[in-house]
């Protein structure tokens, strides 16, 4: 039986280990936590979600919805766990993060073909191996990778949002409703009048903030609210605080702005502040958030925080299989490759395993194949992390799709083609 070493027990590493075991391979899976802590993780569980608890949109008219469906077709453990731990979230898939991680941890540690090792790895293992250490790769291993591929790693700074206790929220003011009533009362909404909104953003501006330790740019997908406001006072109202599709039951009208909360656990005790990534100091977060209507007595489970994310210049060193061009049998997977997002990280783990086992590369008509080709395109310059989108899929721009005026119909047809192509690919 062949043996593969995987470094990193996050989403991509856990998925890769599972896929290899199901194919009959022996797996040595290394995870440095909890012996070696990171800036963001809190537990030693596998596949711990440190940022949002949302896997984003679920519809096939959404590229990430297509990617999730492709993962299910591939027998993804991560999607199995997400569906098991799913919470109400309108048109999105959100999970109870504790149930989610524990489900994966139990599955991995009870699989007889997977041997789990807790401890830090600072050297690249002998091939075949998959390095899936994510954006919080330890300094020692990051240096080993940089030396191996002949480039300094790239980096950006990332932020996470606070989580509050539901029992500390004033539910006479904060109301439950999804935008346009899609999905039921799955979100909680803190309504703001124009004056309340202006006061709130002034509070954010005046708050004392944590500065990155290096001269790093924020990642667009998880930009702190303070950085968003540098683009103008209306930025939040047209971004994470947009009020469209919502009606305050006390007034019967749409608020000027809303701060949304999304359920973070199955019981509804914990609520995540949607899109409210922040680098305000902890005391300032308490002051600013408690200035919101209905949040005067807010109690916090987790404060927002800032951390450094590492990724490599993948177009210069990776093949579409996610194998290093100059080092056969050494693969990278997860956010260290420059894919961004939970689902995208999972997909990269499956892509690496498929090539390791069979030498196959996912078809470009699929979301998985398109994502891998994006991060490995040698002509790409100024490389930055990327979520999946229909804009990465060449089939979306094919003549038979370009003539379709209805955007949703065009996306749906692209998704149907992707699923058909994936099934044919797997069937061979």
Q: How is the secondary structure organized here?
A:
Blueprint: E1 3-7, H1 11-22, E2 26-31, E3 54-57, H2 63-73, H3 77-84, E4 86-87, E5 92-95, H4 97-110, E6 114-118, E7 129-131, H5 139-149, E8 154-160, E9 163-165, E10 175-176, E11 187-192, H6 194-206, H7 225-229, E12 257-263, E13 270-273, H8 282-289, E14 300-302, E15 305-311, E16 330-332, H9 342-358, H10 367-376, H11 399-402, H12 407-427
Parallel strand pairs: 1-2, 1-7, 2-6, 7-16
Antiparallel strand pairs: 3-5, 4-5, 8-15, 9-13, 9-14, 10-11, 11-12, 12-13
Helix pairs in contact: 1-9, 2-9, 2-12, 3-4, 9-10
Q: Provide the helix percentage.
A: 25-40%
CATH fold-level assignment of the largest domain: FAD/NAD(P)-binding domain
Second rung of CATH, namely the architecture of the largest domain: 3-Layer(bba) Sandwich
Q: Quote the beta fraction.
A: 15-25%
- Compute the number of strand runs: 16
Give the strand line-up of the largest sheet.
10-11-12-13-9-14
CATH homologous superfamily of the largest domain? FAD/NAD(P)-binding domain
Number of helices: 12
Q: Any low-confidence stretches, pLDDT <50, length ≥5?
A: none
Oligomer: single chain
Radius of gyration based on Cα positions: 22 Å
The run of helices and strands is EHEEHHEEHEEHEEEEHHEEHEEEHHHH
Whole-Å distance between the termini? Answer: 23 Å
Helix/strand class: alpha/beta
Mean pLDDT level: 91
- Shape field: globular
Report the top-level CATH class of the largest domain.
Alpha Beta
Overall structural domain count: 2
Q: How would you characterize the largest beta sheet? A: 6 strands, antiparallel
């Amino acid at each position: 039986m062949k043996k593969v070493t995987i470094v990193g027990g996050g989403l991509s590493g856990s998925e890769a280990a599972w896929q290899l075991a199901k194919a009959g391979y022996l797996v040595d899976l290394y995870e440095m936590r909890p012996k070696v802590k990171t800036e963001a993780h809190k537990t030693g569980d596998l596949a711990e979600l440190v940022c949002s608890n949302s896997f984003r949109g679920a519809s096939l008219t959404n590229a990430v919805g297509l990617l999730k469906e492709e993962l299910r077709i591939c027998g993804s453990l991560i999607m199995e766990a997400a569906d098991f731990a799913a919470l109400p979230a309108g048109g999105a898939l959100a999970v109870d993060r504790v149930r989610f991680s524990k489900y994966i941890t139990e599955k991995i540690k009870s699989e007889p073909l997977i041997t789990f090792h807790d401890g830090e790895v600072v050297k690249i293992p002998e091939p075949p191996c998959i390095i899936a250490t994510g954006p919080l790769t330890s300094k020692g291993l990051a240096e080993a990778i940089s030396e191996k591929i002949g480039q300094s790693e790239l980096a950006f700074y990332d932020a996470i949002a606070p989580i509050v206790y539901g029992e500390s929220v004033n539910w006479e003011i904060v109301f439950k409703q999804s935008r346009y009533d899609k999905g039921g009362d799955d979100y909680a909404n803190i309504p703001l009048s124009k004056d309340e909104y202006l006061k709130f953003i002034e509070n954010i501006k005046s708050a004392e903030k944590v500065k990155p330790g290096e001269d790093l740019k924020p990642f667009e997908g998880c930009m702190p609210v303070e950085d968003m406001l540098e683009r103008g006072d209306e930025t939040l109202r047209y971004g994470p605080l947009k009020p469209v599709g919502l009606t305050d039951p006390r007034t019967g009208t749409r608020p000027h702005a809303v701060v949304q909360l999304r359920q973070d656990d199955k019981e509804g005790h914990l609520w995540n502040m949607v899109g409210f990534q922040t680098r305000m100091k902890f005391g300032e977060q308490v002051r600013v958030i408690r200035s919101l209507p209905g949040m005067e007595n807010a109690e916090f489970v987790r404060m927002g925080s800032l951390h450094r994310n590492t990724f490599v210049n993948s177009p210069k060193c990776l093949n579409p299989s996610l194998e290093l061009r100059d080092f056969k049998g050494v693969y990278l997977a997860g956010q260290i490759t420059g894919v961004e997002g939970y689902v995208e990280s999972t997909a990269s783990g499956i892509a690496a395993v498929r090539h390791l086992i069979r030498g196959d590369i996912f078809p470009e008509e699929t979301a998985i194949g398109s994502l891998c080709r994006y991060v490995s395109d040698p002509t790409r310059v100024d490389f930055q992390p990327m979520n999946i989108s229909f804009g990465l899929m060449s089939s979306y721009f094919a003549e038979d799709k370009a003539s379709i005026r209805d955007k949703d119909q065009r996306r749906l047809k692209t998704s149907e083609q992707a699923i058909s192509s994936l099934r044919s690919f797997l069937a061979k």
